[in-house]
Design goal:
This protein is α/β, with parallel strands linked by helices. It is built from 16 helices and 16 strands. The longest helix has 24 residues.
C-alpha cells in the first residue's frame, strides 16, 4: 500500500552448533562460504577504530560469520577495547596498541607505519595458527595492500574495503596537494590493483574505484553503511540532558578538523548571543584529536555553558542524547572528501526519526533527502537559522523525522546491505557463484 512502511526481515537460518565457533548449517550457507565441507576463513584488518566499536566493520564481521564464514579481526586497542585477544559472538579479535593518535603529517606517518608493522605481524601469526582464505582490508591507511599482496602469493584473496578517500582526506586536513598527496594517490591505485574485489560505501566511491583506481566495474560492489535497527533503538528521552532548557540539538561523530564541529559551535554562538536564545542546549557526542580544541573554542565563543561534550561514550549514553534531541546536526565541512562520503551519523539520526540540518553535500543529500534541511556550505549563520527554523516548527520536525525513519526501514537499514556484502564475497569464487546464484553488484 502507498506510504506503508515495510521492514526487511532476513530469511531464517539454521545454525550448526557443532561447526567451528558455531555458524550456519552447511545447507543454509551462501555460495563461497564453504569449500570441501570446511568454512572459509576471513581476516579483517582495520586501523582507525577498535572492534567492536567500529560499527561498519562489526556489522560486516557479524554478517559474514552468520553466513558461514570464520572471521578474525586485527585492529588497534582503544577505550573499552583493551584486551589483546578476545572472542565476541564467535569472532576472534586481535588488537595491537598504537604509539599515538596522530594529528600532524609526521604523526600519521608514525601511526600508520606502526599499524602496518603490528597488523602484518599478527596476520603472519594467524596465517600459521587459525589461518585465513581472505584478507579484508579497511582503509585508512591505504597500506594494507602490502599485507594482502603478500598473502596473495599463497593463494589468498584480497578485498579492499574503501571507507575513506585518503588523498581527499589529506587535503581536507592539511590544505595542500604536495608530495604526500601524490603518494596517497599512488597507494590508493595500488590498493585497487592488488584487490580481487573492492567494496565501495556509495556510488561516488564506486566511480572513483573504476575511474581513478582502474578497477573493472564488475569487481566493485556498493555496500552502504546502513544503520543496524537492533542497535539504533528509539528509547524514552531523558529531560535532564536538556540542562533545564526547552530544546536540545544533538550531534554524534568524531571531533576532528574535517567534521566541522567549529561551524556548529559558531552556529550555537549565533543562536545564543545574536538571537538571545537561552532555551537551546547542544549535546555533542564523540571523541577525537580535536576534542579539547573544541571545548576551548566553546569557551572562547562564550557558549560553553550551553554545550555538553560527552567524549566517546557507550551506546546507551549516545542513544539517550540522540533520542532526547529535537534536531540533529551534521556540520561536516564542504570539501571534496565530505561531498563524496556517506556519513553514518546521518542515517543513524534518520533511524531514530530525527529531523536533520546539514550543509548541502552530494552524498548527504542522497542519504537524507526530505529528512533534512540543507544550509549553504560552510555557512555557520545559515546553519543556525536552519536549526532555529526547525526548533520553531514541531509539525515540520515530526514530518521530516517520520520520512527519514521510513527511508531507513524501507531502503537503508543494514539488512538491505548485508546481501550485497555476501554477493561481493561470492564473486571471489566464481565457480561457487555459478553453482548457487546470488545478487549482482549495483549497476554502474
Amino acid at each position: 500500500m502507498p506510504g506503508q512502511v515495510h521492514v526487511f526481515a532476513p530469511a531464517a537460518h539454521r545454525f550448526d552448533p557443532d561447526g567451528e565457533d558455531g555458524g550456519l548449517h552447511p545447507a543454509a550457507a551462501p555460495a563461497g562460504s564453504r569449500v570441501a565441507g570446511k568454512r572459509r576463513r576471513v581476516l579483517i584488518l582495520v586501523e582507525n577504530l577498535p572492534s567492536p566499536f567500529d560499527r561498519r566493520v562489526w556489522q560486516e564481521a557479524t554478517t559474514l560469520r552468520r553466513a558461514g564464514y570464520a572471521v578474525s579481526i586485527v585492529c588497534p586497542t582503544g577505550p573499552g577495547c583493551d584486551k589483546r585477544h578476545e572472542v565476541l559472538e564467535g569472532i576472534h579479535i586481535h588488537r595491537y596498541p598504537l604509539p599515538l593518535e596522530a594529528s600532524g603529517a609526521a604523526g600519521y606517518a608514525v601511526e600508520y607505519g606502526s599499524a602496518l608493522t603490528r597488523a602484518g605481524w599478527l596476520a603472519l601469526k594467524l596465517f600459521f595458527t587459525r589461518g585465513f582464505d581472505v584478507v579484508h582490508a579497511c582503509n585508512p591507511p591505504d597500506l594494507f595492500f602490502l599485507i594482502g599482496g603478500f598473502f596473495k602469493l599463497f593463494g589468498k584473496k584480497f578485498v579492499f574495503d574503501h571507507h575513506d578517500l585518503c588523498p581527499e582526506l589529506y587535503e581536507a586536513k592539511f590544505g595542500r596537494r604536495d608530495f604526500f598527496w601524490r603518494l596517497l594517490l599512488r597507494l590508493e591505485r595500488l590498493s585497487f590493483r592488488t584487490a580481487d574485489i573492492s567494496i565501495a560505501t556509495n556510488e561516488s566511491y564506486r566511480r572513483i574505484a573504476i575511474d581513478r583506481g582502474g578497477m573493472p566495474h564488475e569487481r566493485v560492489f556498493v555496500v552502504r553503511s546502513g544503520p543496524s535497527l537492533e542497535r539504533m533503538k528509539i528509547v524514552p528521552p531523558q529531560p535532564a540532558l536538556r540542562r533545564g532548557r526547552a530544546h536540545l540539538v544533538g550531534y554524534v561523530g568524531v571531533m576532528g578538523r574535517q567534521e566541522g564541529v567549529e561551524y556548529l559551535l559558531q552556529a550555537a554562538q549565533r543562536i545564543v548571543k545574536t538571537y538571545g536564545r537561552s532555551d537551546v542546549h547542544f549535546g555533542l557526542v564523540g571523541g577525537g584529536t580535536s576534542l579539547e580544541e573544541m571545548k576551548a573554542l566553546a569557551k572562547t565563543l562564550g557558549v560553553a555553558d550551553y554545550v555538553t561534550f560527552t567524549g566517546r561514550v557507550p551506546d546507551a549514553e549516545l542513544l539517550a542524547m540522540l533520542n532526547t534531541a529535537d534536531v540533529c546536526v551534521n556540520p561536516d565541512i564542504a570539501n571534496a572528501m565530505n561531498d563524496k562520503s556517506t556519513m553514518n551519523k546521518i542515517m543513524e539520526y534518520m533511524a531514530l526519526g530525527k529531523p536533520i540540518v546539514q550543509f548541502d553535500l552530494t552524498e548527504g543529500r542522497w542519504s537524507a533527502r526530505g529528512a533534512s534541511l540543507y544550509a549553504r556550505p560552510n555557512d555557520a549563520a545559515d546553519l543556525a537559522d536552519k536549526i532555529l527554523h526547525l526548533l520553531g516548527d514541531a509539525e515540520l520536525r515530526a514530518r521530516m523525522g517520520a520520512a527519514g525513519r521510513a527511508r531507513v526501514l524501507n531502503e537503508l537499514a543494514w539488512d538491505f546491505e548485508a546481501p550485497k556484502l555476501l554477493a561481493a564475497y561470492a564473486a571471489l569464487w566464481p565457480r561457487a557463484r555459478e553453482q548457487r546464484p546470488v545478487a549482482s553488484p549495483e549497476s554502474p
